[in-house]
């Protein structure tokens, strides 16, 4: 079995050593591809001032996810969860796309990138200009009523006291993000699987690969013979099983990739 790089694919159960290749080699692959899908995690928004969840300086050093982003705790005591969540949401609200987001938008413009599956809840891919963004874990720029499921933009609701309540039915509003103990929205899950199963290259950017089911998507891509390219300044849980590992920050590696692709295409 060969992939589009002409490389022999390894069966899934075989743990191959990932190899470091330079950006140029990946750029060559991307330049001739069209059905490329990106899977992004918290790392891509670090340069926008949003801290990642895990690792040094991660949000979960300050907050216990089981406390603040667990659906059962939230239902029991929404006010307590909201105080911590509001702090995170305030950062997200003012964050702007960084060069990594803009590079993915440029890849779409060039007809290379088809879709972005993001675990991030910050809406920055849409703001950067990507048109098909699958929000795997929701979006904290929106809230959802636990009773009537009405959805409101954060700016539309009164947050003077926490928790905020639904203007229509007075139910408790929750950030429209997927909490621990909740399932992935069905449409997002189905769209993500369809995108991943039909892509030629999967770009996996800034995720630790520790949270399922998103963590399995790169392997699903490999099952369907896509080349998996990972961009991360550190090795992740996914790294041993990707095809190419570009060690570096997304905001540096992605613009470099775009530049190289443009050079190759003579643009
Ligand atoms: N560029 C690229 N990657 C980076 C950068 C950067 N500038 N800075 C850090 N990273 C990498 C880290 O090395 C790490 O592998 O980003 C990754 C962030 O990992 P996590 O904090 O675990 O974020 P993520 O994988 O998105 O978490 C998945 O977990 O808590 C839940 O729902 C939450 O969506 C989140 C999910």
Question: Explain this structure to me?
Answer:
Strand 4 and strand 5 form a beta hairpin. The radius of gyration is 19 Å and the shape is elongated. The longest helix is centred in the first third of the chain and has 17 residues. The chain is 34% helix and 17% strand. It folds into 2 domains: 175 residues, Rossmann fold; 84 residues, SIR2/SIRT2 'Small Domain'. The chain is α/β, with parallel strands linked by helices and 267 residues long. The chain contains 10 helices and 9 strands. The N terminus is likely disordered. The strands form 2 sheets. It has a 6-stranded parallel beta sheet, sandwiched between helices. Helix 1 packs across helix 10, helix 6 runs parallel beside helix 10 and helix 8 packs parallel to helix 9. The structure holds adenosine-5-diphosphoribose. The site of adenosine-5-diphosphoribose has 26 residues, from helix 10.
What's the topology here?
Elements: H1 23-31, E1 36-40, H2 59-62, H3 65-68, H4 71-76, H5 78-94, H6 99-109, E2 113-118, H7 124-128, E3 133-135, E4 138-145, E5 151-153, E6 173-177, H8 186-198, E7 201-205, H9 217-223, E8 227-232, E9 244-247, H10 250-265
Parallel strand pairs: 1-2, 1-7, 2-3, 7-8, 8-9
Antiparallel strand pairs: 4-5, 4-6
Helix pairs in contact: 1-10, 6-10, 8-9
This protein binds adenosine-5-diphosphoribose (APR).
Q: How many E strands?
A: 9
CATH class of the largest domain: Alpha Beta
Determine the fraction of residues in helical runs and give it as a percent range.
25-40%
CATH architecture of the largest domain: 3-Layer(aba) Sandwich
Query: Largest beta sheet, briefly?
Result: 6 strands, parallel
Topology-level CATH name of the largest domain: Rossmann fold
Q: What is the domain tally?
A: 2
Mean pLDDT: 89
Low-confidence runs: 1-20
CATH homolog superfamily of the largest domain: TPP-binding domain
End-to-end distance, in Å? Answer: 33 Å
- Rg, rounded, reads 19 Å
Number of helices: 10
Bound molecules: adenosine-5-diphosphoribose
Instruction: List the helices and strands in order.
Output: HEHHHHHEHEEEEHEHEEH
Morphology call: elongated
Widest β-sheet, arrangement of strands: 3-2-1-7-8-9
């Amino acid at each position: 079995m060969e992939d589009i790089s002409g490389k022999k694919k390894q069966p899934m159960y075989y743990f191959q050593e990932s190899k470091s290749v330079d950006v140029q080699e990946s750029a060559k692959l991307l330049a001739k591809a069209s059905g490329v899908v990106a899977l992004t995690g918290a790392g891509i928004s670090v340069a926008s001032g949003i801290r990642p969840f895990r690792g040094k300086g991660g949000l979960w050093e300050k907050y216990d996810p089981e406390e603040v982003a667990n659906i059962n705790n939230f239902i029991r005591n929404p006010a307590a969860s909201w105080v911590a969540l509001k702090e995170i949401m305030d950062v997200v609200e003012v964050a702007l796309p960084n060069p990594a987001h803009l590079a993915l938008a440029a890849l779409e413009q060039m007809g290379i990138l088809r879709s972005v599956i993001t675990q991030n809840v910050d809406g920055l891919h849409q703001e950067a200009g990507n048109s098909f963004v699958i929000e795997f874990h929701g979006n904290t720029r929106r809230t959802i009523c636990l009773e009537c499921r009405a959805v409101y933009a954060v700016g539309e609701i009164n947050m003077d006291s926490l928790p905020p309540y639904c203007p229509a039915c007075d139910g408790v509003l929750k950030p429209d993000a997927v909490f621990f103990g909740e399932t992935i929205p069905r449409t997002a899950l189905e769209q993500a699987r369809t995108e991943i199963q039909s892509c030629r290259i999967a770009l996996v950017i800034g995720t630790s690969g520790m949270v399922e089911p998103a963590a399995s998507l790169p392997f699903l891509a490999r099952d369907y013979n896509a080349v998996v390219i990972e961009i991360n300044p550190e090795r992740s849980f996914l790294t041993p099983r990707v095809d190419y590992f570009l060690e570096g920050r997304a905001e540096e590696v992605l613009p470099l990739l775009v530049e190289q692709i443009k050079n190759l295409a003579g643009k």
